[in-house]
Specification:
This protein is an alpha/beta fold. The chain has eleven helices and 13 strands. It is globular, with a radius of gyration of 25 Å. The model has no long low-confidence stretch (mean pLDDT about 85). Keywords: ATP-binding, Nucleotide-binding, Transport.
C-alpha cells in the first residue's frame, strides 16, 4: 500500500546574518545551512496495517508524512502510495488518501462544520447519497450532530478533531495519515478518537499510519511500530520486541500466600547481583518486587524460581514505560 525506498530530504535554509541590515544581507546571502531531516528511509506498509510512527522531537516524522502525502518532494528516493507517485499523480493520489494534522485544521474556520463537508464533497466528487451515508455513519460513531451547525472556530479541540477526521474520510480513502491526532485532548476525547480509528481499521480495512507522542495511542492501536531517530529508521517491528530489544527492566510483583523465604543470594543487599538474571528491588509484607531483563530470562523461569521461595498467590507484571523506550532512543 505504501512503498518508501531510500527516502531522503534535506532542507536548505539561508544562514541568518547578525548586525546592521542583517535582513537584507540574509536575503542576498549565498550561504546556506543544510539540514538532513530524513536520511534514507525504506519501508513497506501492507493494506490493512495500523502502523505507529514515533520518535523524539525533530526526528523527521512530519517530514516523512509530508513526503508520503505529496506535500513535500523528497530530495532523493522514491515513494508510491497505492501504486501511485504522490507528487506526479497528485490528483489521483489524493483521492486514495486522507490526512489529518492535529495542529492544523483543514476545515473552513468561519463556516459551520456541515458547510465544510459540502465543499469537500464537491471537491472530491462525492455524490450526495454517498455523502449522506458516510456522514450518518461518522455522526453516529463520533457524535458529530451536537456541533453540526457550529462554526469550526467555536469548536472545542476534541470536537474539531472529530470533525477533521470525518472530513479526511469523507471521500472514503483507503489510507489515512494522522499526525498527532490526540494532542491536547482529554481522556474521554482520546478514547472516542481511538475507538473510531480502530473501527476504521478493523471494520473498514483502512490502512493507517499514525504519528503520536502519546504512547497509549500506540499501545492500544498499532500492531506495528516504526521508530525514527535523527532522520533514520531505528526500529521497525512489534512493540513487544521493541521493549525487549531495548532491555528496559520489566517490574514483576509476586505476592505470596503465607510465609516465604528469599534465598541469600537474591536478597536486595546481595553484594554481587551481576551474575543473577533478575534483581530483587524490594521485599514488602507478603510481596517481593523484582526487576528482570526479559532478554535474559523468560517469565516462566522467573515464576518457577520464585515458586521455590514460597506459595505464589498472585503475579503482576509492569512492562517498561514506553516513554522510557523512546527516551532511550533519543539518548543514543
Ligand atoms: N521547512 C523546513 N525548513 C528547514 N528545516 C526544517 C523544515 N521542516 C523541518 N525541518 C527540520 O527538519 C528536522 C525534522 O523535522 P520534523 O518536523 O520532520 O520532525 P518531527 O519528528 O515531526 O518533530 P516533532 O515531533 O517535533 O513534530 C527538524 O530539525 C526540523 O527543524
Amino acid at each position: 500500500m505504501i512503498e518508501a525506498s531510500h527516502l531522503y530530504k534535506e532542507f536548505k535554509t539561508p544562514v541568518v546574518r547578525e548586525g546592521k541590515l542583517s535582513g537584507l544581507r540574509t536575503l542576498f546571502s549565498r550561504e546556506y545551512r543544510l539540514k538532513e531531516a530524513v536520511r534514507g528511509i525504506s519501508f513497506n506498509i501492507e493494506r490493512g496495517e495500523f502502523v505507529g510512527y514515533i520518535g523524539p522531537n525533530g526526528a523527521g516524522k512530519s517530514t516523512t508524512i509530508k513526503m508520503l502525502t505529496g506535500i513535500l518532494h523528497p530530495t532523493s528516493g522514491t515513494v508510491t502510495v497505492g501504486g501511485l507517485n504522490p507528487h506526479r499523480d497528485r490528483r489521483r493520489a489524493v483521492r486514495r488518501l486522507g490526512v489529518v494534522f492535529g495542529q492544523r485544521s483543514q476545515l473552513w474556520w468561519d463556516l459551520p462544520v456541515k458547510d465544510s463537508y459540502d465543499i469537500l464533497a464537491e471537491m472530491y466528487g462525492v455524490s450526495p447519497a454517498e455523502k449522506r451515508e458516510r456522514l450518518d455513519r461518522f455522526a453516529e460513531l463520533l457524535d458529530l450532530r451536537e456541533f453540526w451547525m457550529t462554526p469550526v472556530r467555536k469548536l472545542s479541540l476534541g470536537q474539531r478533531m472529530r470533525a477533521d477526521i470525518s472530513a479526511a474520510m469523507l471521500h472514503d480513502p483507503d489510507l489515512l495519515f494522522l499526525d498527532e491526532p490526540t494532542i491536547g485532548l482529554d481522556v474521554h476525547a482520546k478514547r472516542n478518537i481511538r475507538q473510531f480509528l480502530q473501527t476504521l481499521n478493523k471494520d473498514f480495512g483502512k490502512t493507517i499510519l499514525l504519528t503520536t507522542h502519546d504512547m497509549d495511542d500506540i499501545e492500544q492501536l498499532c500492531s506495528r511500530v516504526m521508530v525514527i531517530n535523527h532522520g533514520q529508521l531505528a526500529y521497525d517491528g512489534t512493540i513487544r520486541s521493541l521493549r525487549d530489544m531495548i532491555g528496559l527492566p520489566t517490574v514483576i510483583r509476586v505476592k505470596f500466600r503465607g510465609g516465604f523465604r528469599v534465598p541469600e543470594e537474591w536478597r536486595e543487599e546481595a553484594t554481587d547481583p551481576s551474575g543473577l538474571p533478575f534483581r530483587v528491588t524490594s521485599i514488602e509484607e507478603n510481596t517481593v518486587v523484582i526487576e528482570a531483563d526479559r532478554r535474559e530470562i523468560g517469565t516462566m523461569e522467573i515464576i518457577r524460581e520464585l515458586g521455590n521461595w514460597g506459595e505464589i498467590d498472585d503475579v503482576d507484571m509492569e512492562e517498561p514505560d514506553f516513554e522510557e523506550v523512546i527516551r532511550s532512543f533519543s539518548a543514543s
